[in-house]
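[agent] plan:
  1. take the single chain provided in the ticket
  2. run structure prediction with default settings
  3. attach structure tokens to the ticket
  4. add a short note for the reviewer (M.T.)
[agent] executing step 1
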Amino acid sequence: RTVRMKRRELASMYFPGKSPREAVRSLLGWIHNCPDLVAALEALGLPYKNRRELTVRQVRIIMEYLGDP
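[agent] step 2 finished; step 3 output follows
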């Protein structure tokens, strides 16, 4: 079984002062502003934009490019 993390949980770690919705928007903005990160996520072949949950691999890649929250 693949462990997953809710996208809003990860976003709230990066943007603790924002509402979950604003945090997700901000996180997606950071992702989209990093073409190498977008390419790495797309290379996994798993959607990340419209998903509520991210796989461990997706979370690792995001943290690799954006740094620890």
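[agent] step 4 note for reviewer: Residues 14 and 69 are 5 Å apart (CA to CA).
[agent] ticket updated
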